[in-house]
Write a structure and sequence with these properties.
By secondary structure, the protein is an alpha/beta fold. It has one domain: Alpha-Beta Barrel (TIM Barrel). It has eleven helices and twelve strands. An eight-stranded parallel beta barrel has the order 1-4-5-6-7-10-11-12, surrounded by eight helices. Helix 1 packs parallel to helix 3. The two termini are 14 Å apart.
């Protein structure tokens, strides 16, 4: 049985760690590296850095943060935001990231996923999906922090991305993000049933039982946590201890 990864998600704006609700109403919390270092020392499995304004300004400005993190934190680091070309990806990877997460660039040019996979390997490429539920019960993919509609059905988009060579999917429910009311379990379950690559559930964790529920209902491979960690509502140790009690395999 696979080990489920406990992942800290850090959304960044102008070199500050931020947090909001539905990816909006953002509040500054401090220096991203300080939080990442604390989570690493506490036993987190991976770190995700997302530049929240990269698409707006057509660039990713996290190089300094990535370099500092990779020198002192020895777990996989995924970086997303503003990646629109092989050169953009190469720049981030050379700064010390292990994986890149791409949303807007892939929506505008799906072939970019294939090109990136061929160049860097599928295990390096993560499709970042910002999903909102529609009135008919399906989900639409969004870009620009959940503001811009794409017209893409989330499940169909994930299937296509897998065929293009993506090695992993970061699946964020914009509706649930920051609410602490739990994940969109149906969303994660729907995608995991139709794809064969690792899924990271993101958006909505507010108590330890939400971790257990999303893992057992959706068969996801990782859980991205922000609010509960950033506001010290729980710790990595508590999450992992709880998971063991729930018979969930996690990394020691």
């Amino acid at each position: 049985m696979r080990n489920v990864r406990v992942i800290a998600r850090l959304d960044i704006k102008n070199n500050n760690l931020i947090k909001g609700i539905h990816l909006e109403g953002l509040r500054k919390l401090g220096k991203p590296y300080d939080f990442a270092k604390k989570y690493f020392q506490s036993g987190v499995d991976e770190i995700i850095y997302m530049d929240s304004v990269a698409s707006l300004y057509n660039r990713n400005s996290l190089n300094n943060i990535i370099e500092e993190t990779s020198k002192n934190i020895f777990i996989p680091i995924t970086v997303g935001g503003g990646i629109r070309s092989i050169d953009d990806a190469n720049n981030i990877l050379r700064s010390g990231a292990d994986k890149i997460a791409i949303n807007t660039g892939a929506v505008k040019n799906p072939k970019l996923l294939e090109d990136l996979s061929n160049r860097f390997g599928s295990s390096t490429i993560v499709l970042s999906v910002e999903a909102k539920k529609k009135y008919d019960g399906t989900w639409e993919a969004y870009t620009n922090n959940g503001r811009e509609k794409t017209g893409l059905n989330v499940v169909e988009w994930c299937i296509e991305a897998e065929k293009l060579g993506v090695g992993e999917i970061l699946l964020t429910s914009v509706d649930n993000e920051g609410t602490c009311n739990g994940f969109d379990y149906e969303l994660t379950q729907s995608v995991s049933k139709k794809t064969f690559i690792p899924i990271i559930a993101s958006g909505g964790m507010g108590q330890l039982s939400h971790f257990e529920k999303v893992v057992k209902l959706s068969n996801c491979d990782g859980v991205a946590i922000a609010n509960m960690l950033h506001y010290s509502k729980t710790t990595i140790y508590e999450i992992k201890s709880y998971s063991i009690k729930c018979d969930i395999n996690i990394r020691a």
